[in-house]
Amino acid sequence: MTGPDAPATQRLNKAIAASGLCSRRKADELILAGRVSVNGLPEPSPGRQVRPQDVLAVDGSPLAAPQSYAYVLLHKPVRVVCTAHDPEGRPTVLDCLPEALRELRLYPVGRLDYFSEGLLLLTNDGALAQRLCHPSHHQPKTYEVLVRGAVPPAALEAMRAGMRLAEGEQLAPVTVSAVPQARGTLLRMVLHQGLNRQIRRMCRDLALTILRLCRVAQGPLALGDLPAGVARALTSREVEALRRSVGL
User: Fold this and answer.
1) H-run or E-run covering 27
2) 208 and which of 136, 166, 203, 247 could share a cystine (Cβ 3.0–4.6 Å)?
3) Domains held by the chain: number
4) Exactly one of 28, 113, 125, 225 is catalytic; which is it?
5) Distance (Å, rounded) from C-alpha 42 to C-alpha 56?
6) For 71-126, what is each residue's pLDDT tens digit?
7) What is the Cα–Cα distance from 171 to 165, expressed in whole angstroms?
8) Same domain, yes or no, for 173 and 126?
9) CB of 59 closer than 8 Å to CB of 35
10) How many CB atoms lie within 10 A of CB 142?
11) Which residues touch 245 (CB under 8 Å, ≥6 apart)?
């Protein structure tokens, strides 16, 4: 499920990767080594456009049909847990999805805590999920955090310099801007590492009270104006950008 604009043709290297055989980079190597054929004829160009009905083979063995994956962006609401099942009976992110999507065995990639909201990716593409969760492929995540009152300049400098949490973890520098609001201060924070409850622990140590915490972007994905509790399919371009960002 990649949106209504899925192309009728695609590059040969992308088609090989979509079959689950290997990454796109490895597909390039196979093609350039003369090991790939299209409709029985050797094909030397990774950029060759192929159609769904074309027969692709590697070393003479036809490729499996492309696996059917779904990619869904959900605006997770507050008071919802990021699991497929909660032993305490609380609502889960799967409860936010239409029944047709719940049948696709989607799983959340990463987490937002119970009282946080915002962008959450769900997919049944295990290879992509594994890459996204691995520290070597960590993607910048952007949050809008409303805190009570004014934020002292020293607190902003501590975030930007890379602070040490009370538990002892040393944080990477955080890109942060502050805009005064009627209810307090809106912080826009870009995190480049993925520690558990990092923003809440930072604000705790800086004596800042969080009123609202919302993830608005992750890598090439943006939440936009999607309402809380609503999900949408990623477009084919978003899927392509997401897979490319982790080397698939």
Assistant:
1) helix 24-32
2) 203
3) 3
4) 113
5) 10
6) 999 999 999 999 888 899 999 999 999 888 888 888 999 899 999 999 999 998 88
7) 7
8) no
9) yes
10) 19
11) 137, 139, 219, 220
Q: Tokens 């392509």 identify what position?
A: 240
Residue type, 228: A
Question: Is this prediction's pTM over 0.85?
Answer: no
For residue 162, give its domain range: 140-218
Report pLDDT digits (tens) over 27-59: 999 999 999 999 999 999 999 999 877 889 999
Give the closest residue to 101 by CA, choosing from 233, 210, 196, 227: 233
113 belongs to the catalytic site: yes
Instruction: Tell me: pLDDT of 224 over 90.
Output: yes
Query: Does the residue 37 lie in any domain?
Result: yes
Three-point CA angle 13, 18, 23, nearest 5°: 60
Q: Which residue has the tokens 């990619």?
A: 71
What is the 8-class DSSP label of residue 82? S
Reading the block at residue 16, the tokens are: 């090989």
**Amino acid sitting at position 213:** L
In a domain, 120, yes or no: yes
CA-CA-CA-CA torsion for 172, 83, 240, 234, nearest 10 degrees? -120
